[in-house]
Write a structure and sequence with these properties.
Chain lengths: 190, 190, 190, 190
Amino acid sequence: MTSGRVRRFDPERRDRIIDSCLRVIAEQGVAGASHRTIAAAADVPLGSMTYHFSGMDELLHEAFERFTTSVSDRFEERMAQAGSADEAREAVVRTILDAADPRETVLSHELYTLAAREPSFRDLTHGWMARSRRGLERHFDPETARLLDALIEGLQIHRALDTQERDPSDARIAVARLTHAATGPTPAAG
Amino acid sequence: MTSGRVRRFDPERRDRIIDSCLRVIAEQGVAGASHRTIAAAADVPLGSMTYHFSGMDELLHEAFERFTTSVSDRFEERMAQAGSADEAREAVVRTILDAADPRETVLSHELYTLAAREPSFRDLTHGWMARSRRGLERHFDPETARLLDALIEGLQIHRALDTQERDPSDARIAVARLTHAATGPTPAAG
Amino acid sequence: MTSGRVRRFDPERRDRIIDSCLRVIAEQGVAGASHRTIAAAADVPLGSMTYHFSGMDELLHEAFERFTTSVSDRFEERMAQAGSADEAREAVVRTILDAADPRETVLSHELYTLAAREPSFRDLTHGWMARSRRGLERHFDPETARLLDALIEGLQIHRALDTQERDPSDARIAVARLTHAATGPTPAAG
Amino acid sequence: MTSGRVRRFDPERRDRIIDSCLRVIAEQGVAGASHRTIAAAADVPLGSMTYHFSGMDELLHEAFERFTTSVSDRFEERMAQAGSADEAREAVVRTILDAADPRETVLSHELYTLAAREPSFRDLTHGWMARSRRGLERHFDPETARLLDALIEGLQIHRALDTQERDPSDARIAVARLTHAATGPTPAAG
DNA sequence: AATGAATGAGGATTCATTCAT
DNA sequence: CATGAATGAATCCTCATTCAT
């Protein structure tokens, strides 16, 4: 008889909690990510939270680790599929423009905010950046890879946090300037 | 007679609360900025908080408005003092490298995180970016100004959130590439 | 109209909480004295507890301070009313025998246990003992006062923690021996 | 094959749990002695606790039984080794003064507190006192033995819970007065 | 025989907000 | 005008115990 009401064994529960944690953060921010809200989102009893995770910090760390890994995976794959420098440039541009997904924007900023204050989260941001650079270095020299990586970051943020629409060509021009020197006349203002 | 309790008239109290709010956010994040902690930091009675501000949102908005205004002021002044495109480039480079102040890093990210989720804070980020661009447009064409602004953002973030030291020359090279096209051989990897 | 359901002003509430705290400790021990149980006993909302006391420690300290003060008051009065050394001896004997009140036994031990581990409670036990000695010194020299005080303690404990009834004359004999040397033949066993 | 998990047979585990229980109580009190903390201290799985003991009460009882037995053993031995009434007096004095071991002080009080409220622990305190008296009765008459036992208790407590140092001669004088009546002039205060 | 997984109840504490003064 | 007192909801976390394995 498997009657009763509880599931005593649920091996994927830990996983589900991590996913729910990311979902809650995306929707309500780290501030709204409490044991309660996450437990409810994961359809798991409250006591389950501290059983599986030593505390909110461990949970947050694992959640953001999953997030950065998945974003990095996707970016690396994109870079791997580019067959030439030109295709790589186009992939970078697309990465910048695709960032419209508000979920990722929000999660990124939440992580940055955490990392800005708590060094323990900086291993995640560091690892993330390292993998991005490694992907870029398939097609560009290390110096350029670092600059491109920072540019992607800055353009994504400004696209996300500006109330005004941005012209998509910005990204293309910026990538061009950073990757091959000469594109035309000196752009200093008259 | 000045007997009884003290300080029934304190015209700068509102101001002090806003400053304390920023101080608390810099130290403990928006998450740690409660009426209680801010009131304590400002040495102001708890009941005073809801008297002067309709709620945390109003207070946060005013606090971040003060923050972005002060950062923008400083940047605009820097740009105004640059007498040539070269001096402007150097001012941009210094702006990127000076961002070591953890207080500003933290406050920026806290604001971005807020703005990423709540549109009501996006007027602040939009205004901030607009003023930055206006400053840059004293020396560069609008297109370049936009790109420089994003680059500043990206490099600052990566410098702050990487565990590894960054070479300061990165900033100089990036600014050079974005502002005058040709600086040398094509940097695509071999 | 004083309708509604809440009492917004209740100046004796702090006092009532302290009393309820002692009551709960007497009934269930320090282990059972939680914010919840005490709040319920005092008919006070839970949030009221940490409003009036910084935490359980402060509350416990104040509660036991009240307890020791009241016990000391009573003992001092008894000593003050004794008109002669003989009456003082009798008062001491009665103090030992009266300790049957389980409430006081329990509270004393709870305090001792606390003080045994946390020095911050030792000021209470020290003050208690000091006042007891001061009372005894009205009638006995300091040396004898110290010994009597310890004897009271020991006899009370053994009376309380033995499952076997004790002969009340024990107390009388012990007090006699400690206070005037000669009462008969040497009591060493054959 | 000793593969798989380890230590499915561990006959001393029950013993180790009891010892760990005492250690935890000495360090954190009965309040801090939970199944979890004790299991961790004994390096034993949590589920093992309720397997070996029906509940905390059984465990506490066995732990304190071990404690009182060991203290009683030592005291009895001391008394057995005393060859004369004078040596016995000295042994009693030393027992009082040696009680500086904070571990024993703490454990004694924890037990007293338990016994003060729950009669089920009073068999332990009763047995302890009975054995103490039996030891003393090797050298003193039953009456004196009871008084000495109580005096030991009282002086130990006051030495442990006073913030002021005690003069060791107190113990010697008290024992003298209780055991042979006349030691000098009447100690009543002038 | 032994235990890892699980959980509901309860632990202290913090919070934004209300309201009588 | 300004605030100290008050509170219910929510915070994270620990707990003894149960039970399928």
